[in-house]
Amino acid sequence: MKKYLKGLITGVVITLILTGTFGYASQMKQTIEVLFNSVNLEVNGKTVNGDNILYNGTTYVPLRRMAEMLGKEVGWNQTTYTASINDKVLKGDHDTSNAKFIGRLNNQPGDKWYKAETKYVDIYFYNNAVKMEWVVEELDDMVEYLLAFRGEVWKGNKARVYMTDVADELKGMTGYRGSVMLLDNKTIIISADTVDSVLRKGNFDDLGTEIIWTEDPRFVLVHELSHFINHPDMVDNSNKWIEEGLAYYLAFNYNYKQIDSNRYPDEAKMRKFTQFLFAGMDNGYDSKTGVDYIIHDKNSYLMRNLETQKSVFTFQGMMDVHYGRTGIENVRVDVFEASVIEFLIDTFGKDKLVEFYKFMHETERIRYIFNDEIANHFGHTIPELEEQWRKYVGIDDDYREIMN
Predict the structure, then answer these.
(1) Alpha carbon distances (Å) from 218 to 79, 128, 135, 308
(2) Which of 77, 263, 396, 399 lies deepest, with the highest CB count within 10 Å?
(3) What whole-number distance in Å separates Cα of residue 64 and Cα of residue 73?
């Protein structure tokens, strides 16, 4: 009986409030009989608590409580006397112009994700990594540049790019260390190391040297997007010198836009190719100069180890270094890899290279016939091409000296 009376009183009170709020509404009052809190409420299978009334077979729940149950917000327009239920506006720790804070992301750890979308790419930034959202403005140009080089058209599949932050909650994430293209052929992860090196501009490294120049993350993006466009990849790692070399060649030769110094003053000072910093090359790319400098830099990681030195004089050896099979870390041979592609283009023409590249990606048995097809296509065996390449970049004498 008490429950019935409480329901009756609630009905009367609600009617009076509504009548009083809408001054222009009919001044009709009505007493109704309702059942109070007689209905159990669930949202997506989960029980939720909330007052409700049952009247004439219909359950009524306060608007604000209903919105809260659904993870929404209630809005009120005093001018039009309109109540509304709206999606919650999520807020991150950073003000952004290209990316929107989304919080959690399906199948990924952490709850500080931002997202931006372009025609060809969906890109996600974790927390501090969103400071590099300026790369969004150039993503579509990168993809179109890569497609144009190969004479191809977009097949409609968008790439997914994740730029991670140095955060404890991400440490178990694939690609947290070392940028990677995942096996689904469309997911690119730009590692926390890469992101962190950019964000630490103006700080000091372990030797006390100020970090002024850092590598432009767009360079890594062009490289990885090249892999995205060219999947499936059917050659084994030892023969990926064309695959990796072309990705680096295209990254080195892409026409990077000038970063807006008014909007991004720190990023405008960023150096695209850190390995050329001490070679006296100002944002330009020249494979012969780069290779010559690295070969003769006795303090470089590359030249500290004899086996690594020997590796960079052959195409397969470069891949051993690239994939860490030499046991020496922190060695970059991207300039060497790109110079091989430059040599092939200058010697045989771009069309000849692109023709073989497409054949390589369309032939399922290529891993078994790669060496023979190289000889058939270019008219030279791989050792013969290596010898010509060493002369092309001017390291033939260095090769003989090291090998002897």
Answers:
(1) 49, 17, 7, 28
(2) 399
(3) 8
